[in-house]
Specification:
Aspartate Aminotransferase, domain 1; alpha/beta; 15 helices; globular; Aspartate Aminotransferase, domain 2; seven-stranded mixed β-sheet; binds pyridoxal-5'-phosphate
Length: 494
């Protein structure tokens, strides 16, 4: 029998893979070691980035893999923003654990389709174990859950489970389905409401208190009034760590309101849920244990490389009710006492990659205590920054929750009306941020609270240390002074 007559351009011998792989791993190792001495970003414009890439058409013929990998590595190492840099503290994007990069390589090499158990026996079981461990880590009594691409998707799954559980048998007989969330809720909620049939007008925005936490007194009143008016309150969303300032909604109080009114309680813990692993976590955060569904993001505070989100649900049946179909073209039924999980029945995706591996290996590499230590250290760094800000006379501290610190540059001697002062400080701090984000020395982002434009550092980065916080203060003040000299109303440059 003759075999292997076929030539496939994408095939690669073991020998070639080994040679290319060693070269690539060598370069990645050098890159990781060099991170602190690189700029966080080159700050290049889109035109400049496109010029590096070139605009040629799809090549007709293939090219040698070693040249291509060298080129791709040069492009990425030379022209990326590095969220693994110790001075990256923007948005909520973490440094990625190097073991996660190795895990992704291994996962891609085996390439299990984690949609059906038969197609992915070991990877499906690793995912099930990962889900159990995540639930245990944050103290959520989950019967089930699954890994998804990130926070938006994890929240969508909770939303869909709630909608299915709360939908009446006869939709025509029902009033309007309503969703309750605070104004500080991440924009996933508008997308979910639009995508999943209730419409964004179905969101009842609940006001927040002065610490950006959902006001439960108003929530209770709103639900009661809506019920009286014949509407169908569907779910309440509590946030465990808001995207802007890291505020934690009063989850235990929300839980008891939901219980009293018999409404689904979903917690968006995309950012903050993992901090519930700390024994000293506040009871408001630990209150996530009372939710019906919980979203959390291993690609945020568990340092998994993008992408990895997770939905946990109290009752497995709720996911099956929302997502399970048994098409004739699948032969996935197992005749065993404890049928294994086919993940396509628990969520939106059908074919699924093996994103559990990087999470599972990260959890095992650090262990519970290692995870707790890294999260605790991140929070400690953010508090240290708040202290430095408080001590500096040209900086004003605002909020400090979890690992987020907000503040702004306020130069001395401003002689303007209050409204003009606020307007000028907003412009000045916005310009500081623009300069800082393009400069490459450090990277933070912003929050707008009560119409004030604030600088915002979020530490989900196990490489960030005290000296990086000290450097950040120096950079902000340096930019602030330079820009103030030019921009201050009445100055030469203004
Ligand atoms: C509270 C919260 N929810 C949801 C998200 C969306 O997560 P992702 O960007 O992973 O989709 C974020 C992102 O920062 C977030 O902070």
């Amino acid at each position: 029998m003759t075999r292997k007559q076929r030539h496939a351009p994408l095939e690669m011998s073991g020998e070639e893979f080994r040679r290319l792989g060693y070269q690539l791993v060598d370069r990645i190792a050098g890159f990781l070691d060099s991170l602190p001495s690189r700029p966080v970003t080159t700050g290049e414009t889109p035109e400049e980035i496109r010029a590096h890439l070139g605009e040629g058409p799809l090549p007709d013929a293939g090219a040698p893999a070693d040249a291509l990998l060298t080129e791709a590595t040069d492009l990425l190492f030379g022209h990326s923003l590095f969220n693994g840099h110790p001075r990256f503290m923007g948005y909520i994007t973490s440094s990625a654990a190097p073991i996660g990069a190795l895990a992704d390589l291994l996962a891609a090499a085996v390439n299990p389709n984690s949609g059906g158990w038969n197609l992915s026996p070991m990877s499906s079981e690793i995912e099930a174990q990962t889900v159990r461990w995540l639930a245990d880590l944050v103290g959520f009594p989950a019967e089930s859950g699954l890994l998804v691409s990130g926070g938006n998707m994890a929240n969508f799954i909770g939303f869909l489970a709630a909608r299915r559980a709360g939908s009446p048998e006869d939709p025509g007989a029902a009033g309007r389905q309503l969703v309750y969330a605070s104004r500080e809720t991440h924009t996933w909620v508008q997308k979910a409401a639009d995508l999943f049939g209730v419409g964004s007008e179905a969101i009842r925005w609940v006001k927040t208190d002065e610490a950006q936490r959902l006001r439960t007194d108003l929530l209770d009143e709103m639900i009661t009034a809506d019920r009286k008016a014949g509407h169908l309150p569907l779910m309440v969303i509590g946030t465990a760590g808001t995207v802007a300032t890291g505020a934690i909604d009063p989850l235990p109080e929300i839980a008891s309101i939901c219980k009293r009114h018999d409404i689904w309680f979903h917690v968006d813990g995309a950012y903050g849920a993992l901090a519930a692993a700390l024994p000293e976590a506040p009871s408001d955060l630990k209150g996530l244990a009372a939710a019906d569904s919980l979203a959390l993001d291993p690609h945020k505070w568990l340092y998994a490389p993008l992408e990895a989100g997770c939905t946990l649900v109290r009752k497995r049946q709720h996911l099956l009710d929302a997502f399970a179909y048994r098409p004739s073209y699948y032969n996935f039924d197992a005749d065993v006492a404890e049928p294994p999980t086919n993940y396509y029945e628990l969520g939106l995706q059908n074919s699924r990659g093996f994103r559990a591996l990087k999470v599972w290996l990260g959890l095992r590499r650090a262990g519970r205590q290692g995870i707790i230590q890294m999260i605790r250290d991140d929070m400690e760094m953010a508090r240290y920054l708040a202290k430095l800000v408080q001590e500096h006379e040209e900086l004003a501290a605002h909020d400090q929750h979890l690992s987020i610190t907000t503040f702004r540059f306020e130069p001395a001697g401003l002689d303007l009306e209050p409204a003009a002062t606020e307007k000028y400080l907003n412009e000045l701090n916005s310009e500081i941020l623009n300069r800082l984000q393009a400069g490459g020395e450090a990277y933070i982002s912003n929050a707008v609270i009560d119409d004030q434009f604030l600088l915002r550092a979020c530490v989900v980065n196990f490489r960030t240390d005290r000296e990086d916080m000290e450097a950040l203060v120096e950079i902000v003040v340096r930019y602030g002074r330079e820009l103030d000299a030019k921009m201050r109303p009445g100055s030469e440059g203004s």
